[in-house]
Amino acid sequence: xDDSSPLARLDRRVTGxxxxxxxxxxxxxxxxxxxxxxxxxxxxxxxxxxxxxxxARLLIIGLAPAAxxxxxxxxxxxxxxxxxxLYQALYDLGLANRPTSVHIDDGLELYxxxxxxxxxxxxxxxxxxxxxxDTCRPWLVQELGLLRPTLRAAVVLGAFGWQAALPAFTEAxxxxxxxxxxxxxxxxxxxxxxxxxxxxxxxxxxxFTGKLTPEMLREVLGTAARTAGLPVS
Length: 233
Prior knowledge:
By secondary structure, the chain is an alpha/beta fold. The protein has one domain (6-228): 3-Layer(aba) Sandwich (Uracil-DNA Glycosylase, subunit E). Helix content is 38%, strand content 9%. The protein has eight helices and five strands. It has helices at residues 6-14, 21-33, 70-73, 81-92, 130-147, 159-171, 204-209, 214-227; strands at 58-61, 113-116, 153-157, 188-190, 195-199. The protein has a five-stranded mixed beta sheet, sandwiched between helices. A hairpin with a 4-residue loop joins β4 and β5 (195-199). α1 runs antiparallel to α5 (130-147) and α5 (130-147) crosses α6 (159-171). The longest helix is centred in the middle third of the chain and has 18 residues, at 130-147. The protein is globular, with a radius of gyration of 16 Å. The protein starts with 5 loop residues before the first helix and ends in a 6-residue tail after the last helix. The relative contact order is 0.16. The model has no long low-confidence stretch (mean pLDDT 97). Belongs to the uracil-DNA glycosylase (UDG) superfamily. Type 5 (UDGb) family. Keywords: 4Fe-4S, DNA damage, DNA repair, Hydrolase, Iron, Iron-sulfur, Metal-binding.
């Protein structure tokens, strides 16, 4: 992505945010203490911006960076098992150039796909508060506004992300049905020129128990990608 593009400038602004004291304290504490397996890493320890091209046709919306994943590496779904599952699926569908996402300079590229989250800082116990979610929402609203000219589909991972994303789509100018549609795996909602899909989150809890299988994930991502007009393997 062009470093001078409006989306690249937004990403840089995101990384400097200190709006939520609890999240700032937690992300920086994790970056100082580290996990033993990553003792030789210099942790990112800041808000993690979205990742992917500025003309993406498909957006994947997660929850928040993992303490020792995105908070360590500085890239969404990078350096943890959730990312292993997500990027393997994108690679299988021909939407990524490699099946793994290890660190920010590993050469990973996404084709027509961008990955973001409604909360950009790693939260304690992977649970942002409703107030933190709402404080972070303007970043997602701005991101959606910049992507709107090309965006044709979005996949939201998990119920928390769904609850956070729907108001953001409304604030970014899309008409969301009332009452708001409930989250469910495979749920599909037509907005103005965009289809919104629900998918179980790629968390270890879901993937280890079989609540979300690789086949289930590929099915939702593949349907969304085809809806967005992307070529799928």
